[in-house]
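Could you join me in thinking about how sequence relates to backbone shape in a protein? To get us started, please write out a protein record for me. Would you write everything just below, so we can both look at the same thing?
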Amino acid sequence: MKRLVPMLLTALAAVSVAGIVGGNIVRSFSFRSSEIDYKMSTKTVSGEFCDPNSPLSSSGYFDRHTTSLLHANESTQGGNGVIPFVIWLQGGPGCSSLLGMLEENGPCLINDDGNSTRVNPYSWTEVAHVLYLDQPSMAGYSYGNRNDINDDMIEEDTHFFLQSFFKREEGSKYRDLPLVLTGESFAGHYIPAIARRIWKCNKKRDRDLLHLPLSGLAIRNGWYDGEVQITSYAEMALNNPQWIKLVNETEYEEMKIIAAGCTRRDMHKCKAKVSQVEREFVCQKAVECRHRLLDTLYRQNISEYDITKPCVQDADPDCDPMGKSLSTFLNNPSTKAILGVPTHVTWKECGDYVSDQWSNIDLNANYTPYISELLNNGIPNTIQYKILAGTFISTE
């Protein structure tokens, strides 16, 4: 139901976990900005982890305060003309981007046995450098004590990660390439916030910060503005492109009534200029109202990732058909060793700790104005905003 991300650029090829051999080149550096220290360490990863033909594969951690965010990077071999540098962020909040890497657009896909992968011929790494980031802290392989609870905190950490990455020797080769931010689900919050932060810092021309060549945004099935989006839940449940009736006519009408109540009574008030205490209360009610709306769909026992299939919770509590296999693979000591992940860290597809702590105000916020601001202030020809429609019943 939720998806986050590790900053990872990697191309994976079919390989058994037992055959993984980690690299041993470790580099680190730190720099000071706004009186705060940042540190990044990188480990070279054997090409046999996923794609033996990849010219470069690395992973490591970005450290700030007591937080460590996993990042991984791999260069592409293909592509014509200028090759972009792509960042992939899952959603959630609290889900791991490695899910995107190993189930969706990465260089290899996890096999059912949970011990091996196979080459993904449609990987984005065929035409771009791709980096997956597990953020915030406690998402995927990332860990630490800092509790990011809203997108203001996310955009700050991610911006300084990018500054750190492009300042170091390994990242400097990508510094002038078109930077494209991509993701899905709750990345509909992350990406507009991060892009806006990059754009504003670029405008300030701070000599201590690199100018980041932001050139595109792509968000799949994003969660942007709940007040607008939940009004389509009932219609999608009854009249979706697959012609699968997830609810009957009575349930359809009930969902429309609930959605109207949510938007009028709670979600709209959540955005109003009222006292902080009142706003927190109203926004919590808005979240509960949305859950009530989704309960009608969850009772149908269908997968929220593919409505043509049933939810098999024995395989994965979030109904991800490959969830169990992915967890087995990423919690294997050999996998952790090659990526430089501490042995005490346990990988989870989506961390409840993050989502449970997340600000209800932020969950209900509308991020579409950020997109408008980006398009209407100096960069209308360089920002490409694309929403890919999906058939999921929730925002992951």
Remarks:
- Residues 1-27, 380-396 have pLDDT under 50 and may be disordered.
- The radius of gyration is 21 Å.
